[in-house]
């Protein structure tokens, strides 16, 4: 062997624990946030569906409530929708907040909003 030392490569146990903690935290946050995002997209799909069905404001709200029941939507109800009519054109909007508890007193607050307007 010549007089040179080969530098070791790799990760220390402490470094591994830190990385696993960071990845674990991201995983837990993702597991709590993903269901709310899925619910948001279900709401958007539901309002697009009831918009094409048309009808009165009450009929649209009732149709949304039926879709919400089938689609496991708990965040809003038909009465929470903002429905505007301009002649035969119907626009439906919604907005709500979702508070997700994380650890102890720490929570994540997400504002969701959507509309059928182009």
TrEMBL record:
Q: Can the keyword Transmembrane helix be found in this entry's annotation?
A: yes
Keyword annotations of the record:
Membrane, Transmembrane, Transmembrane helix
Instruction: Enumerate the InterPro entries for this protein.
Output: DUF4845
Keyword Transmembrane, does the record have it?
yes
Instruction: Tell me the superkingdom of the source.
Output: Bacteria
Listed transmembrane segments? 12-34
Q: Which Pfam families match?
A: DUF4845 (PF16137)
Q: What is this protein called?
A: DUF4845 domain-containing protein
- Its source organism is Paraherbaspirillum soli
């Amino acid at each position: 062997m010549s007089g040179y030392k080969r530098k070791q490569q790799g990760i220390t146990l402490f470094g591994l624990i830190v990385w696993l903690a960071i990845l674990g935290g991201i995983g837990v946050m993702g597991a709590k946030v993903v269901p709310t995002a899925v619910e948001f997209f279900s709401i958007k799909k539901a309002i697009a569906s009831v918009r094409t069905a048309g009808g009165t404001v009450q009929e649209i709200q009732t149709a949304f409530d039926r879709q919400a029941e089938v689609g496991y939507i708990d965040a809003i109800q038909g009465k929470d929708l903002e429905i505007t009519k301009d002649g035969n054109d119907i626009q439906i909007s919604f907005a709500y907040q979702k508070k997700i508890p994380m650890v102890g007193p720490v929570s994540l607050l997400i504002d969701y909003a959507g509309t059928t307007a182009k």
